[in-house]
């Protein structure tokens, strides 16, 4: 949780929102507040910074460093899933989903057709 909450300290244009740790994944939402006046580069490969990939990479590094220091065996999957939220309605639906995910996990883990069996 501490690594999630510290994201805006490392990326001042990012605001962290809801976040939940699940047994084998995390859910979280971030708001990006960047000026439209900032230059964009199209079709260029090079250092990636001030984008979602760099924020996720920094978060994963921070969690891995903490786990290593605490001697907690830990590894991230190589990628992540993202979704752009485009309306207030979608935002509220996504927040409800994240908040309800832990209870849904507990409810579904014992079902015979569950991925946990």
Automatic annotation (TrEMBL):
**Top-level division of the source organism's lineage:** Bacteria
Q: Record's InterPro entries?
A: RAYT_transposase, Transposase_17_sf
Q: What is this protein called?
A: Transposase IS200-like domain-containing protein
Identify the species of origin. Hymenobacter citatus
């Amino acid at each position: 949780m501490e690594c999630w909450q510290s994201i805006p300290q490392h990326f001042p244009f990012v605001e962290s929102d809801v976040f939940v740790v699940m047994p084998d994944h995390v859910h979280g939402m971030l708001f990006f507040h960047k000026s439209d006046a900032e230059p964009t580069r199209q079709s260029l490969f090079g250092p990636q910074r001030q984008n979602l990939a760099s924020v996720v990479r920094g978060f994963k590094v921070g969690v891995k460093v903490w786990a290593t220091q605490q001697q907690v065996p830990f590894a991230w999957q190589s990628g992540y899933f993202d979704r752009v939220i485009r309306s207030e309605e979608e935002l509220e639906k996504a927040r409800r989903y994240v908040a309800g995910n832990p209870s849904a996990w507990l409810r579904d883990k014992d079902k015979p057709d569950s991925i946990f069996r």
